Amino acid sequence: MSAETAPATTIRFTDLGLPEQLLRALADVGYESPSPIQAATIPPLLAGRDVLGQAQTGTGKTAAFALPILARIDPAQSTPQALVLAPTRELAIQVAEAFQKYASHLPGFHVLPIYGGQSYYPQLQALKRGVQVVVGTPGRVIDHLERGSLDLSQLRCLVLDEADEMLRMGFIDDVETVLKKVPEQRQVALFSATMPAQIKRIAQTYLKDPVEIAIRSATSTATNIRQRYWMVSGVNKLDALTRILEAESFDGMLIFARTKLGTQELAEKLAARGLSAAAIHGDVEQKQREKMVQSLKDGRIDILVATDVAARGLDVERISHVLNYDIPYDTESYVHRIGRTGRAGRSGEAILFVAPRERGMLGAIERATRQKLEPMQLPSVEAVNEQRVAKFLGKIGAALESADLSMFRELVERYEREHNVPAVEIAAALAQLVQGKTPLLLQAPPERPRFERPGGTTQVRSRDQRPAAPARPSRHGERPFTPPQSGHATQANAGEALFGDDRPAARPRREAPEVGMETFRIEVGHNHGVQPGNIVGAIANEADLESRYIGRIDIRDDYSLVDLPEGMPRELMEHLKKVRVGGQMLRIQRAGPGDGDGGPARGQRPHPGARGPRPPGKPHAGGPRKPGGFARRDKPRG
């Protein structure tokens, strides 16, 4: 059985066989007609069938599985009858709230969200009192199973929500652990936006003759949203954002960053630059989140910096612009993000920051949405300064029109007489006092330091001077750049030793760097959760250095060693010291004699050009890759 998205549905919830208590709850919240995923999923789940559903976030799948579960729940039974696994605590809370909303007319019903980052005590107490539905992250669910505090012996239904997201976050082994601990006779519903091989394997292993439902998501974006992108080049992203905020005429703006920490830091930096901005993310309490959204609606703040999860369901008419400070991981997230503007037929603006290494994701967005994004030029320093001057003069005009200036006029005339200073000079001094320490005019950014190769040839040029890079070969082929060979074992052999079998390798001997390279120590390592791709990305971006010039990376417990071309300028070294990876400053310095003996290497990146083919099924160093080529950092349980 399959279902496709229809432009409209004539089916009503009353046609699906749901009990009266649930229909009353749906009427209370104003729901009348089910979405396509709900219309296709509710009947087979009510009939006790397993379901394999392919549907994106925002299609209404929470109600698609919550309503059938509630229809078959026994409030008199205090042991869990249904378990929903969710990838994040934000989603677990959201799903639990949905259950509570739909069960408003079911007396005696209790749902419990369990997730990491919260004390065990309230969860243990609630489990002792008895709950019918548990919604949890895989890691915390396993913790309760191991403690013996979660009894799944009477479980009737298991739901895997956003299974591909749990795979991406590294939770898929925990998911299988839970699947093996539930009763043999149980109903399973698996929902996933995509169906990678591992998700298909789980479905084939644990689902029994499932009904397969595929809902085609709407990836098209509204025609009333103007979509532009800026290719990150030459200017710091924060400086570029500031220019756009000053030059663009916007009402309210929603800025998306990837991480909770990123939203907080960006909002603080914008506030320090005099902009009214606040951060909203999963750690912000619901009451505080509601206050922030209301402040945006009322005009008390103009900019909200948010994560994808925190912005779900956000509908504020004032949002005229959506800016993707960090490019999303997938095209659906992009569509969801920019859908926060251009609502109800209004026009909207969407801006996307794209780093050079993220061009592939830009192409994927354009293919998925069937729209070409318009390249935008960053507002020039002169344009920003014109705006600043215009605003400053506007403030003067407003003050002249609205205030009684007689007292201040007398003070200026008095100062002019007593000190023999022209009134224009006094006005200039007063203007400087009003402006304070913040410069009125923006200064052109200094030219970034360049990396000179030995012999005086410029290795790193500005992007408009750099020759075109050679064509990149396939993943399994050799790159055209071959570094000079030293007298040590070849890096290709090192790569074969690293990937050749599953046995844990002995700690590798730290080899001398290639000719023309030297080894640097950076103060981030395995303990900080870094992967080779994080280090490559940071150095390549901040040093304006092509990644092919970055050599071997050895990640130790609390520091790493990286080979870079000789002759790093002092000013560039000072700049890189302050760059952060994994929340830590690099504090880069040239490696000392004993730095290679500081502990086992956890991840390595061979020199460019030396990678041999990797055996099928073997991951790259640093783990699976995200779109754009970065290694993913797996999150801890729950």
UniProtKB/TrEMBL annotation:
InterPro entries: CsdA_RRM, DbpA/CsdA_RNA-bd_dom, DEAD/DEAH_box_helicase_dom, DEAD/DEAH_RhlB, DEAD_box_RNA_helicases, DeaD_dimer, DEAD_helicase_DeaD, Helicase_ATP-bd. Residues 237-384 form the Helicase C-terminal domain. It is found in: Cytoplasm. Keywords: ATP-binding, Cytoplasm, Helicase, Hydrolase, Nucleotide-binding, RNA-binding, Stress response. The keyword GTP-binding does not apply. GO terms for molecular function: helicase activity. This is ATP-dependent RNA helicase DeaD. It comes from Cognatiluteimonas sedimenti.
